[in-house]
Amino acid sequence: MVEKAVIMEESAVKRALVRISHEILEKNKGAGSVCLLGIKTRGSALAGIIAENILNIEGVAVPCGDIDIRPYRDDLKVHVLKETELPFSVEGKKIILVDDVLYTGRTARAAIEAVFSVGRPAMIQLAALIDRGHRELPIRADYVGKNIPTSRSETISVRIPPFDPETSVTLME
């Protein structure tokens, strides 16, 4: 794959995540019973940034963890034991799933299934840094950093520490 365009540089990613953090607080009337779950791998890093933003805005440390959805995917031939462990109880909580790119909706569906495998939250919301379209399931994000219409031959690459040396979003072809 070849880099076609830089969609967001570090400052734009930070602004989008601060905006998402404010939107989460506004929609949920504060941090109250909000918990963040980052979808591995880059969603976990983004959830950590959103949690830090909420702490800076509200002065409240929201529970934050990550979730491995591979055992719940319907389009991957992965034979992993369906065992989900979270660092907090989801019972009665407002769970915000955080992912880097929303595409077909299959990852979000698998994350929802993984959450329900460990308890019954009051609600589940979805935050995505990038929504690139091409949904195969009736899933939409509650919070989106940027909508990037793409062709199916293109991909979106989100780069974020600690997985990458820099923070950016690029369109690849």
How would you describe this structure to a colleague?
The protein contains 3 helices and 8 strands. Helix 1 (10-27) packs across helix 2. Helix content is 27%, strand content 28%. The protein has helices spanning 10-27, 42-58, 106-116; strands at 3-8, 34-39, 64-67, 94-102, 123-131, 143-147, 155-159, 168-172. The protein has a single domain (3-172), classed as Rossmann fold, CATH 3.40.50.2020. A 5-stranded parallel β-sheet has the order 3-2-4-5-6, sandwiched between helices. Strands 1-8-7 form a 3-stranded antiparallel β-sheet. The termini are close together.
User: Using only CA atoms, what is the Rg?
Assistant: 16 Å
Number of helices: 3
> Largest sheet, described in full?
5 strands, parallel
Structural class: alpha/beta
Topology:
Elements: E1 3-8, H1 10-27, E2 34-39, H2 42-58, E3 64-67, E4 94-102, H3 106-116, E5 123-131, E6 143-147, E7 155-159, E8 168-172
Parallel strand pairs: 2-3, 2-4, 4-5, 5-6
Antiparallel strand pairs: 1-8, 7-8
